[in-house]
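Technical note accompanying the year-one report. For the benefit of new consortium partners, we illustrate the data format agreed upon in the data management plan: each record pairs a sequence with a structure-token string. No post-processing was applied to the example shown here.
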Amino acid sequence: MDANREYKDSVFSWLFGEPDALRELYGALVGVALGPDIPITINTLEGVLFKGRVNDISFEIGDMLVVLIEHQSTINENMPLRLLMYVARIYERIAGGRDMYRERRIPLPLPEFVVLYNGTAPYPDEAVLKLSDSFADPSGLGLGKGGSPPLDLAVRVYNINQGHNAPIMSHSKTLEGYSVFIAKVREYERKLKSRDEAMRAAVAECIKEGILKDFLETHAAEVINMLLTEWNWDDAFAVQREEGREEGREKGREEGLEEGRNMVLELVRRGYSAEQIEAELAAGKTERTETAGK
């Protein structure tokens, strides 16, 4: 298997960075067989969704479809928004140079948005994330929500962990092999307590069992290094998110203390007694709690 170097920032995007692999993958997802005569054109925008990482693949099927596939180990509910921004860039490139102010309509390929999930947290076989779920409710302005929003975007999410979506796996041996390989890495990681050793053991076992055999035999060292980088990056990103949440909680505590101090000073300036100040502080705390619960 020849590696498409432009899309080699992750094992997934490398494995599926060729037209034949994408033809097989898309056909498995939608339940159709795409013949070799149907052209697949990869048009991935490098590093757009993941700062410096290419974990997404964008491609056109003929001039009829533009498909955006994102591989994730955690579900990001902002994917519809991110993919909206991404597809705008894709359309800009497809229609680039054409006169958008002319009277005749510019034909565009129909978009499809897919997330392939293989994280460790439980997730159903399939789900849909919608951009409209993020929209504010204008009823507070005295306006009804009305019918369908004038803008929406739906992302289909598929769980590609081993044991999920068997019909899809049966029609894409590459995706099935990737799923089995990742499952073996996790299994060996639990046994060996060493990520590097786990990956080497998983590679050896998959080659022995004929799973992604040609790919792993040819690129074993690179696959291990790339996957180590990916997973270490994911760990660092998870820690960063947790630190951000903790910083937010600490900031909230500090802001609460500062707000309390300012309130006490203002009440003292107004001549409130200690009992009155205590009552005002208690009332303010109750109001904040009720507001937070809404």
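Partners are asked to follow this layout when depositing records. The chain has one domain: 5-97+104-132+150-248.
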